[in-house]
Design a protein that fits this description.
Number of domains: 1
Helix content: over 70%
CATH architecture: Orthogonal Bundle
Low-confidence stretches: 16-21
Structural class: mainly alpha
Distance between the termini: 28 Å
Radius of gyration: 15 Å
Largest sheet: none
Order of helices and strands: HHHHHHH
Oligomer: single chain
């Protein structure tokens, strides 16, 4: 029984690594950063430490993209929310929703990683992840949302 669980865990880990290690285009990467941004800022406090952690995560898991690309997408998100928070969030979610099915699955994995990065996937982060999953047409039950 334990061996079966261990093998299933290894399989999921390998699948996750395969998904992150595949080559993605600029549009997909932008959507990933947008989703990560929404989750990280869901509690209304996206401070310098959280921004640095987000950039480190993106650089580690998506090394083909420059830090300047990541920062540019974060600034785009900041500007959208600064102009009008509700409209900005919707505009960002609309862009994320353009992802194909394979990219949508990767985006939701990134959301989960970002949400759990501080040890707690809190209610605000889960609410944002729910909105993203619905926009992507993914079943909420698959993500415990």
């Amino acid at each position: 029984m334990f061996g079966t669980i261990l093998n299933a865990g290894k399989s999921l880990l390998a699948e996750g690594e395969k998904m992150f290690n595949r080559v993605i285009d600029t549009s997909t990467f932008k959507r990933v950063v947008y989703a990560a941004y929404l989750i990280a800022s869901a509690d209304g406090d996206f401070d310098s430490d959280e921004r640095q952690s987000l950039v480190k995560f993106m650089k580690r898991d998506f090394p083909d993209f420059d830090t300047s690309d990541i920062l540019a997408y974060i600034k785009e998100c900041d500007a959208k929310l600064e102009f009008d928070k509700r409209m900005g969030i919707q505009e960002i979610i609309d862009e994320i929703a353009r992802a194909n099915t394979e990219d949508a699955l990767m985006i939701m994995r990134v959301c989960a990683f970002i949400g759990e990065a501080d040890g707690t996937y809190d209610a605000d982060e889960k609410l944002m992840a729910r909105s993203i999953a619905l926009a992507l047409g993914l079943p909420l039950a698959n993500y415990n949302l």
